[in-house]
Amino acid sequence: MKIAVYPGSFDPVTNGHLNIIERASKLFDRVIVCVMVNCEKKPLFSLEEREDFLRRVCAHLPNVEIDSFDGLLAEYAKENHCCTIIKGLRAGSDFEKEFQMAMINRKLNPALESLFLTAEHQYMYLSSSAVKEMGFYGADLTDFLPPQILEQFQQRIRNTSDNKEIKK
Ligand code: PNS
Questions:
Q1: Centroid of ligand 1 to alpha carbon of 158 (angstroms)
Q2: 3-125: which CATH topology?
Q3: Ligand 1 within 6 A of 46 CB?
Q4: Which of 19, 24, 39, 151 has CA atoms 20 to 30 A from the CA of 57?
Q5: Atom 5 of ligand 1 has which residue's CA nearest to it?
Q6: CA separation for the pair 102, 67 (Å, rounded)
Q7: Cα angle, residue 23 at apex, residues 149 and 93 outer, rounded to 5°
């Protein structure tokens, strides 16, 4: 059985992430979407909230599971018998960072491959950080966020609107 892990901060999951998850679910027997810690980011939503968002938006995908982990991705992959890390690749700006992480993950776990799925053109510019920034300024987010989480996202943004400092 081929198991892939799709790691990320997912703060929150966007339509761009969902597109990658749906495509990965057709390539692997099982896909584990794992909410992980990115030391460079200060999330708006708790780990549990981000997992809950993902469970709601992936409910139609029977071979997709949601999990979270606060350690190394390479270790998680080993413990959970994942052969491949899935990453979404947007513009060229993603490449250097992702290339470095793929090298590190392979060094830590030589059996692990990294597989990059290019973003669909309508999501090339989309990121959770951009969605949060647009949200703080009241933009219409229906093209960017799955409908299952839109209301809860906007509620949190309203409650946080006195603090517009957005950490990447
Ligand atoms: O959505 P993001 O923030 O770009 O995802 C980055 C993430 C969470 C996948 C990355 O920071 C990660 O793999 N964190 C777990 C710790 C780890 O294994 N780091 C890689 C070694 S540098």
A1: 28
A2: Rossmann fold (3.40.50)
A3: no
A4: 39
A5: 8
A6: 21
A7: 80
Domain ranges of the chain: 3-125
CA-CA distance, 89 to 156, in Å (whole number)? 28
Residues designated as active site: 17, 41, 90, 128
- Tell me the pLDDT tens digit for each residue of 136-152: 999 999 999 999 999 99
Q: Which of 36-50, 104-118, 149-163 has the lowest mean pLDDT?
A: 149-163
Please state whether the peptide bond connecting residue 12 to the residue before it is cis, i.e. omega within 30 degrees of 0. Answer: yes
**Rounded mean pLDDT of 122-137?**
95
pTM of the model: 0.95
In a mutational test of the pocket of ligand 1, which residue from 5, 6, 9, 51 has the highest number of ligand atoms less than 8 Å from its CB?
A: 9
| H/E segment holding residue 149 | helix 147-159
Half-sphere exposure of 68 (CA within 13 A, CB side): 18
Residue 32 DSSP label: E
Question: Could you tell me the maximum CA-CA distance found in the chain, to the nearest angstrom?
Answer: 49
Give residue-wise pLDDT tens across range 58-67. 999 999 999 9
